[in-house]
Amino acid sequence: MKPLSHALSRNRNNFDLVRLLAAVAVVYGHSYILQWPDGSTDWVQGALGFDGFGAFGVYAFFLLSGMLVTASFDRQRSAPRFVALRIARIWPAVAGGSLVTVFIIGPLFTTLPLREYFASGVTWANLDNFSTIVLKQGWVVPGVFEHNRFIYDVCAPLWTLPLEVRCYLIVLVTGMLGLLSNRWGVLLAAALGLAAFALRLHVPHLGVSWRDFAEKPGGYSFWPEPFFLLGMLIYGWREEIEIHGLAAIGLMMVFLVFRDTAGAQPLFYIAFVYGVLWVGTTPLLHRFVPRNDYSYGIYLYGFMMQQCVASIAPHLSHQVSVLVAAPFILLCAALSCRFVERPVLMWCRRRLARAPRPLAVATMAAD
Fold this sequence. Notes:
Layout: H1 15-34, H2 43-48, H3 53-76, H4 79-109, H5 114-119, H6 121-125, H7 129-134, H8 160-176, H9 183-198, E1 199-202, E2 207-210, H10 225-236, H11 245-257, H12 264-281, H13 295-312, H14 318-352, H15 358-366
Antiparallel strand pairs: 1-2
Helix pairs in contact: 1-3, 1-12, 1-13, 1-14, 3-8, 3-10, 4-8, 4-13, 4-14, 8-9, 8-10, 9-10, 11-12, 13-14
């Protein structure tokens, strides 16, 4: 067996496949809250009793993000470069999605006259991407989806973006403190991140209080942020972690043995995390890794297209509604990747590319 560090090279892992599966899981999970009930339920949540497809998709995203974003800072060793790349990764797709919301989805589905729709300040507020990404302000346009089961909200998954940004800040601050260059430093960084997660700062009075751990995201039995922090730890200890298929099966068997006990949920999460790492590193699945990473676009546009389907045909079965929405979701994700996300990232990387040092140039010439 090889350590996890061996798989962190892009051509040796299946992380794009994991992200794709996570995005599809989120879309499938959302079908149960967008279509009117038809007697079927999320079978994963029914079997486990605590979380379903959507939650596990989000957890997988945060786990991989914690590992790969920490790796990114460790490679860059530059706060400005790190910030620029994070902005280039998150903001362009959100900006594109807000334009689609205001100029395509809104006019097509609003119950208001177009003059009144475009005269409303609520319409144009959706172009404030800072509030969307940082302040947890979703896309709500007047007269749109007002009769849907999930009323008004154009893209509910946006609620995770501010959480992701806060996790990026933890990486940025602890990286600037020099904690991400060794495993013990990463352990301290994750501990500081856990403290930031557990405490709440109240402004403008600057009061500090403990987080209300009884409050969890709607439909979730846990929180995404601890998975990000765990991803940080996994990166820090990557040389000591080995992933094997038999170990993944063994952890799942342990969960099944104790599934009716009080420890069932943490045991499942352990098996889940290890299983995600196995899927992301096993050579057996490398042939299925997509050539293009559409996961972010699927995550953003999935809910939007599902809301459109629910507005037109609210009583479709969950499975049929997903099949109807799927081509439109894939089209939007492909366009976002091809014309928005990838060009901005490539431009940003070119701009940030470091010029070779004279000594390095001389060495290459000598070789």
